[in-house]
Design brief:
By secondary structure, the protein is an alpha+beta fold. It has 2 domains: 166 residues, q2cbj1_9rhob like domain (Jelly Rolls, Sandwich); 41 residues, DNA Excision Repair, Uvrb, Chain A. Helix content is 33%, strand content 32%. The strands form 4 sheets. Strands 1, 3, 4, 5, 9, 13 and 16 form a 7-stranded antiparallel β-sheet that branches. Strands 2-6-14-11-12 form a 5-stranded antiparallel β-sheet. The longest helix is centred in the last third of the chain and has 21 residues. Nickel (II) ion binds next to loops. The site of nickel (II) ion has 3 residues, from loops.
């Protein structure tokens, strides 16, 4: 991915920001519909499709086509809130854009943390600040309802992919309970194998999804 990104065209990151977040955003991006972004994005979408943890945590209905950015020396993104609805151009000619409600945000780190200083993703929620800087290839999935910022890069360059997910389960508390329930059921299955009670719990999990999901 880094080889493709090294040869890609880069533009001002403000192109996908709203008026307010644009004032805080100082980075570079690969243009949204460029061949590089589309082909790398598809690699990520394919990987997400076979990732059970992502599926369980997000219960994704739609994933916004991944975008790619970089923060070179001095670049940062001040505290902001992501737009609640984003538009994806329909591939069908003249079709209305597809709307994606941004329930969750994702950042996939693509630079070894030893290769740059600063550039932490800081997510601000009701419990305070969470500072995130992961190995290349690791991704953080967090609530898009939170304010967040990226601290200035003071050495090297930080490359990453970022995008949003619309969940089948809109309510964050319900989505989190389903995630916790799924993890507990999977843990039990590993310990004792399937039995009648575990099948019943699995049934409850799916019936809650039927109750809460818009698919
Ligand atoms: Ni953001």
């Amino acid at each position: 991915m880094r080889d493709v990104m090294a040869k890609a065209e880069w533009v001002d990151g403000k192109v996908t920001a709203g008026a307010q977040s644009g004032q805080a955003k100082f980075n570079l991006q690969i243009p949204e519909n460029s061949p590089a972004a589309v082909s790398l994005g598809n690699v990520i979408l394919t990987a997400l499709g076979r990732n059970e943890l992502f599926t369980s945590a997000s219960l994704a209905l739609r994933v916004f086509p991944p975008l790619f950015n970089r923060y070179d020396g001095g670049m940062n993104f001040g505290s902001h809130i992501d737009n609640s609805i984003r538009f994806v151009k329909s591939s069908l000619g003249g079709g209305a854009p597809i709307r994606v409600r941004t329930d969750m945000s994702a950042t996939l780190f693509l630079t070894d943390p030893a290769d740059y200083d600063g550039g932490e993703l800081v997510v601000e929620d009701t419990y305070g600040e969470h500072r995130v800087k992961l190995p290349a290839g690791d991704m953080i999935l967090y609530s898009a309802t939170s304010r967040h910022h990226v601290t200035p890069v003071t050495r090297g360059s930080r490359w990453s992919s970022f995008f949003w997910i619309q969940s089948m389960v809109r309510d964050e508390a319900a989505r989190l309970m389903l995630f916790e329930m799924d993890k507990a059921i999977q843990g039990l299955r590993r310990q004792v194998g399937d039995n009648g009670e575990i099948v019943a719990l699995t049934g409850l999990y799916h019936n809650l999804i039927r109750r809460w999901a818009d698919a």
